Fold Endoglucanase.
Amino acid sequence: MKLSSLLHQLFLFISLILFPGFPLVHSSYHDYSDALSKSILFFEGQRSGFLPQNQRMGWRANSGLSDGWMYNTDLTGGYYDAGDNVKFGFPMAFTTTMLAWSAIEFGDLMPPNELRNALVAIRWATDYLLKTVSQPNRIFVQVGDPNIDHSCWERPEDMDTARTVYAVDAPNPASDVAAETAAALAASSMAFRSVDPGYAETLLHNAVQIFQFADNFRGAYSDNSNIRDGVCPFYCDFSGYQDELLWGAAWLRRASQDNSYLNYIENNGKTLGADDNINEFGWDNKHAGLNVLVSKEVLEGNMYSLQSYKASADSFMCTLIPDSSSSHIEYTPGGLIYKPGGSNLQHATTISFLLLVYANYLARTSQTVNCGNLMAGPGSLRMQAKKQVDYILGDNPMGLSYMVGYSNYFPQRIHHRGSSLPSVKDHPGFIACKEGSIYFNSTNPNPNVLVGAIVGGPGEDDVYVDDRADFRKSEPTTYINAPFVGVLAYFAANPNPS
């Protein structure tokens, strides 16, 4: 018997032990509308602050109510980024941008109640982000000491670890976080414009102000010695701050239609690395998303001088088409986009989002992408996205939905404190920092289902072991879910795209 066959048999054996009754088959149907509802509901499980009466994730309760006290300012609210109890500003801002972009591009495809829920999820973030930029020449970039927090396994409602506030004051730089926050507020202003124009104007005004801070004092926030130990290695700026400046300007242009931001992109593109043509998109690297966003201007005939952005976007799309001569994205044997480093599904969701957005831009202008040996139209881009979506929802070698609460088979032991510990309603007594370890080490399923959470996902071999300790695979994050909201809205309305 070949080694590959032996490994496959071992894989099946392990899968059946870990997931008894598991159908190791592909599904031919997905309820994208159900998945959409759950992808938005997930954000209620990540809320920090004082929870409203209509909170649907009932096992959560108030937390972090004193955040900001050491600066004598209110920094309550916002989201915990993943399975811990820290509010990291950099990924939270990116999450917000992607939620808003989802609403902008695909909100008209959402049922009215789900669009409302999506706007509520956005506003929970923007209300907090407005607090972080409420003081001139200062931005609050984080609440909570991650080193202390990560040494505990406790519910957010029980937090007794240091709620250290990390602030950056001019002339110290925070271009990455500040410009991403500008992008988030600008994009969100568009999402709210038709339903709450006053709030939209507030968001846009603050976006303009914080972008000036980002541009005037250029540099990476994680280079500041007074906060570096708190933000690194968790959300260091690994790829540089330059892409965020262009990204923030692009969103301000789209939200305000102010030509000065087009000029900014044109005049600063080379110095800020726009020609690097980096095929990445996520909380740390905005290049591929920037190219798609700016391409809208080019495709609509507004700025031919920005043609290089469209060329980069075209090139990126061609790398994603397996039959293209320029295809070089790595896929697992089961067909999932794979990039090393853990939390892999963040790449699958963001790239799927870009595929759909670019397909829409091409369709509206009746254009295709020249990939050398083939022409890729909107339909082929949408089909590539659909393959990723269906894989995540269960069409994979494990037969497992990587969205918690979707289908009958999903991860039961996710790396998430609130989900894995008994809720305060079931166990009102205080559970201290180290007392939660018994729940972390338990092999029992999590008592609280974090509905809609998308975990980090399988490895390059398509294998996923349901292990709470393997945070690279079993931890959900807000920035995995945020782009998936738009993606699911599209497929709920167009289950068989063309």
